[in-house]
Design brief:
The complex is a heterodimer of chains A (236) and B (172).
Chain A (H helix, E strand, L loop, with lengths): L2 H12 L5 H13 L1 H20 L7 H14 L2 H13 L6 H9 L1 H4 L4 H6 L3 E6 L5 H14 L4 E6 L20 H9 L3 E5 H6 L11 E4 L2 H12 L2 E4 L1
Parallel strand pairs in A: 1-2, 1-5, 2-3, 3-4
Helix pairs in contact in A: 1-2, 1-3, 2-3, 5-6
Chain B lengths: L2 H14 L2 H18 L8 H16 L10 H5 L6 H7 L16 H9 L3 H11 L5 H8 L3 H26 L3
The complex binds zinc ion.
Chain lengths: 236, 172
């Protein structure tokens, strides 16, 4: 491998998209070439920056309501059957439209476990994908526990949302997160961290506070809780 | 309560960069997805939905998806001379030069917003949606190698843009 190859491949390497042999070649070149080591360090810094700073634009609530209305209006029996077939085909993949279907279409047209999904008030999975949402999420969880102390609550963090579950994490005012997380944990709230995110951002799992548990994929975990265990989904 | 609406809206926003168009594109995409889910043959519903969202965004602009992309431009990453160019570029700076780790959120997001759409879309899919190269290749409908070179080129452009913006904001 030469410097040109490295420049072409370094991002795929950092994205874990290179095969093992090519990765080893690349690492060998990094060991002997200081110019490429400098480039590699620059690119890591850039990617950390992207991971920390890139904004997630969540859909505005009125848009969600409009789409839900459209779906309901467009729904006939034949379509519902085809939806179900499609949903079965995607069951292993990330939620896709399945979740939408479970909420919008199935409770009206089909019997079965999906009604549990829509009706369950006591099992909630909170999804935190953004560090800006943490304060709101923790407040909502605490409020929900006030109203309904027996509620089963799982908080799943991925992307930039994992930061508050790392050792020494503090909010904007400098207050550490861990005591708040501990208090909720004692009251039965489960915190789960996406291992894909850790791998992608090269965060060592020892950085995660002991109150939180690792799951292989945050998205898959949310999907599983919704479809298998009847949790309702709360995105912040 | 509809997680994929958020993913769909986020991608749309990054493609069209304003709320009104993003909302239109997402609404249109869900109608199309609903209409055509019978033709869905695959195992990744999210990637399928995002492909529809992307098409809706391009349609809104009256463009074919990927219109205006010059693949030779992509391939510049492979051309000889890149390393020499790179070593005079932002990768070989003096230690007192700006450290991009300190770039603030606003600046980084602006820099990404201003990247050409072909690079912006792959960056957003990779960084926010955490899609694999294979999934991105399917959504954008290009070979895997093109995804790789667009990401490499896009990140290089982004790096340059961030450095340029930081220099402008903090003149020595
Ligand atoms: Zn080298």
């Amino acid at each position: 491998m030469n410097c040109q190859d490295l420049q072409r491949l370094v991002h795929a390497y950092l994205d874990y998209e290179l095969d093992l042999m090519t990765s080893l070649d690349l690492e060998a070149h990094l060991n002997e070439c200081s110019a490429c080591r400098a480039r590699h360090a620059e690119m890591r810094a850039l990617r950390d920056l992207e991971a920390r700073q890139l904004r997630f634009h969540a859909a505005p609530a009125p848009l969600k309501a409009r789409i839900a209305r459209n779906m309901r209006a467009a729904c006939g029996n034949d379509d519902a059957r085809r939806w179900r077939a499609w949903r079965a085909a995607t069951a292993v993949s990330v939620l896709a439209l399945a979740a939408l279907l479970a909420w919008v279409v199935l409770p009206r047209t089909l019997p079965g476990p999906h009604q549990v999904v829509a009706q369950s008030q006591e099992k909630m999975v909170y999804h935190i994908a953004n560090s800006e949402d943490v304060a709101t999420a923790l407040r909502n969880v605490a409020n929900l526990l006030e109203i309904s102390p027996d509620a089963r609550i799982v908080v799943v963090a991925n992307n930039q949302g994992v930061d508050f579950l790392l050792r020494g994490a503090r909010d904007r005012d400098g207050t550490p997160y861990e005591p708040a997380v501990s208090r909720l944990k004692v009251r039965g709230v489960d915190f789960r961290v996406c291992n894909n995110t850790l791998a992608r951002r090269r965060i060592d799992s020892s950085q995660v506070i002991p109150e939180a548990k690792l799951v292989p994929s945050g998205i898959a975990e949310i999907s599983r809780l919704q479809t298998r265990e009847g949790y309702a989904y709360m995105k912040l | 309560m509809m997680p994929h609406v958020d993913a769909a809206y986020n991608l749309a926003w990054w493609l069209v960069r304003n709320r009104a168009d993003a909302e239109d594109a997402v609404q249109e995409a869900f109608l199309r997805a609903y209409k055509f889910f019978g033709s869905f043959r695959g195992d990744d519903g999210r990637a399928w939905l995002l492909a529809i969202v992307r098409n809706a965004c391009y349609a809104l602009r009256g463009q074919a998806p990927g219109a205006g992309v010059n693949e030779e431009f992509d391939e510049q990453v492979h051309l000889p001379g890149m390393v020499a160019e790179g070593s005079n570029g932002p990768f070989c700076r003096n230690p007192e030069d700006i450290a991009i780790q300190h770039a603030d959120r606003e600046l980084v997001n602006r820099a990404i917003e201003e990247l050409p759409v072909v690079f912006r879309e792959v960056l957003v899919m990779r960084e926010i949606e955490e899609l694999s190269y294979k999934e991105i290749a399917r959504i954008v409908d290009v070979p895997l190698g093109t995804v790789m070179s667009r990401l490499a080129r896009g990140r290089r452009l982004l790096h340059e843009a961030i450095v340029a913006r930081m220099k402008k904001e903090s003149p020595k």
